[in-house]
Amino acid sequence: MQKILITIIFGLLFSSCQENEKLNSLEKSTEVNKWNIEKLSIRARQHLDSTNWDLELLNQDIETYNKYSEIFQSYPLNKSPFPIAEYDYAVSSIPFVIELDYVVLKGVRIGEYENPESEKIIDKLTLLILTNDKDSEENTLVDSRNYPYLTAQGKIEANNNDFDWVFSSSPDGFSTLILNMKLFDLRFGETIIIYPQKDKSFFYEQIEDSPNNYENFEEFKKKIISNPKVKNQLDSEKNIE
Q1: 196 and 202 in contact (C-beta within 8 Å)?
Q2: Is there a contact between 208 and 226 (Cβ–Cβ < 8 Å)?
Q3: Which residue, of 36, 117, 149, 226, has the greatest Cβ tally within 10 A?
């Protein structure tokens, strides 16, 4: 039931993004030109100016939160409604599973659409966690409300531990993932693999690769699984069973 409600919420959030008016001329130019500190500063000031707020969207978010507050509060960070300047931005969250003969990894891809009318997704984070259980629970909330920043959070269960994570990507190229208080600077690799250990600690790998570099996601998965460091760690007897 919870997953059904989450799907409904995501649909509402996504459709609201599509219904917003187009960006003003300054914001449109940033779709072609990279964001810099000056443009980010202007955008920050727009959020502070109540004349720029999308009040229809705010009221919709308040209504949605009141209906599904228990779900929003179940994430690492409670997602309360807040006012923002108008924007047009579409985001993506794609869960996946990798099953091998002896291990199961659950993961999620977080990204943004090249533009709201495009079908092309640009991945910003690929997170995999060794669970050895294809039915282990995974919940993700990706949020467009912080545009031009991409934000997401979620939870993935392993058989002896829970993993909470929060992700943020800045359009100037600085991105971070915090997972169970471990910080990953994603400038040094956007693919993160977590290996829970029997003693409830976890090991990890950060790989400078992304699904963006491949024709399809299957090619990316094969590349990751064939990585010597990954293969060696997956064979460790200290991993969860």
Answers
A1: yes
A2: no
A3: 149
Question: β-pairing, 161-169 with 150-158?
Answer: antiparallel
Q: How far apart are CA 14 and CA 217, in angstroms?
A: 23
Task: Encode pLDDT of 171-202 as tens digits.
Answer: 988 999 999 999 999 999 999 999 999 999 99
In this prediction, the residues of the chain whose per-residue pLDDT falls under 70 are 1-33
> What is the b/e burial string over 16-34, where b = at least 16 CB atoms within 10 angstroms of the residue's CB?
bbeebeebeeebeebeeee
Concatenate the DSSP letters of all residues of 53-64 into one string.
B-HHHHHHHHHH
CA–CA dist 52, 49 (Å, integer): 6
Tokens representing 147 are 């545009």
pLDDT of residue 12: 47
- The pLDDT, as a whole number, for residue 160 is 84
Q: Which amino acid is residue 133, in one-letter code?
A: D
| DSSP string over 150-165 | EEEEEEEEETTEEEEE
Please report the pLDDT score of residue 29 as a whole number.
41
CA angle, residues 189, 196, 163, in degrees to nearest 5: 75
Cα distances (Å, whole numbers) of residue 185 to 32, 41, 118, 206: 26, 22, 28, 9
What crossing angle do the helices spanning 2-19 and 55-73 adopt, rounded to 10°? 160
- Give the integer Cα–Cα distance in Å for 170 and 193: 22
Alpha carbons 227 and 116: distance in angstroms, whole number? 34
Predicted confidence at residue 25, as pLDDT, reads: 37
